[in-house]
Design brief:
Length: 303
């Protein structure tokens, strides 16, 4: 396990400070942990300097926030040592929400406020450090979303606000109405679009750091069997062997090399996996190695 301590970063000037690596809780319901095991896992993350924990109301079929909240209820002193992130705006068809008849988005003021208040109850806290809109909604009214965010901030229920999976234009449109802390987007060597569709460029221009979900391609980087994936994996492994680093650490370092200052999320309940991400904050890839991975990721040389 790494002895490095995860550094901290501001998501925007004079804004929210998070750990550079963020613990993603999406799969916590699959980890089969007792309350005491959840507390121990959180403590181990905090010991590594990973103080930021990412949630969404829908994770675990609306169950993950409650699991995490049980740990906070059992050990209340944990709350003051961490930052809690959650998301809202998706309605799943679920036994936990019998009124939902079709999966859809809802970014109305009423739903944002109600979802936030439900997250607070589930997480056993009186405030969120960061609330995100989970997905762009075709019926989204920027003014209404901004009003919901502002109301929640004035009430002390949310300290900072942001979005997830927004295009550059969508982000900037809402950011003009209310200061946004981040845009959480998918990015990995298997999905490089944000580097080329202005997502990262626009955030860098504003001095806003993106959060990154699925940095390891949902685990596919370790297992994909097609020729492209196998070659990409071999290139990453070669860099890892030469630098005496783990495969995952090289991927996290590749992501964090970008000047927009991405903050990757982990997705594992194994502390060794969190430590591998933290290790990546302690070294920088040579430009030639970085571009070797990009070439393998895209399947062609840069022009």
């Amino acid at each position: 396990m790494t002895s490095a301590l995860c550094p901290r970063t501001l998501t925007r000037p004079d804004g929210l400070e998070l750990s550079r690596v963020i613990a993603g809780m999406w799969r916590m319901g699959e980890w089969d942990m007792s309350v005491q095991q959840r507390i121990a896992f959180i403590e181990e993350c905090l010991a590594l300097g990973v103080t930021s924990f990412d949630h969404a109301d829908i994770y675990g079929n609306y169950g993950v926030e409650g699991l995490f909240g049980e740990a906070l209820r059992a050990q209340p002193s944990l709350r003051g040592r961490m930052e809690l992130v959650s998301k809202c705006g998706i309605k799943l068809v679920s036994p936990a929400r019998p009124a939902h008849t079709i999966q859809h988005y809802d970014t109305s003021l009423e739903h944002i406020v109600a979802s936030c208040e439900a997250s607070l109850r589930q997480l056993n806290t009186d405030y969120l450090d960061l609330l995100l809109i989970h997905r762009p909604d075709p019926l989204m009214n920027f003014d209404e979303v901004a009003e919901a965010f502002t109301r929640l901030q004035k009430a002390g229920k949310v300290r900072h606000v942001g979005v997830s999976n927004f295009t550059r234009h969508q982000f900037e449109s809402l950011n003009r109405r209310v200061p946004l802390a981040t845009n959480q987007v998918e990015f990995s060597p298997l999905f490089t679009a944000p580097m080329f569709d202005e997502t990262f460029d626009g955030l860098q221009d504003l001095g806003i750091a993106p959060m990154i979900w699925s940095p390891l391609g949902g685990g596919r980087l370790f297992s994909t069997q097609d020729a492209h994936g196998a070659n990409l994996r071999a290139v990453i492994q070669d860099v890892a062997d030469r630098l005496n680093q783990s495969f995952a650490s090289i991927v996290f370092a590749w992501i964090m090399a970008l000047p927009s200052r991405p903050m990757p999320l982990t997705g594992s309940g194994k502390i060794a996996s969190i430590a591998a991400a933290v290790s990546a904050t302690g070294f920088t890839l040579e430009r030639s190695d970085w571009f070797a991975i990009l070439r393998a990721a895209r399947g062609h040389e840069v022009a």
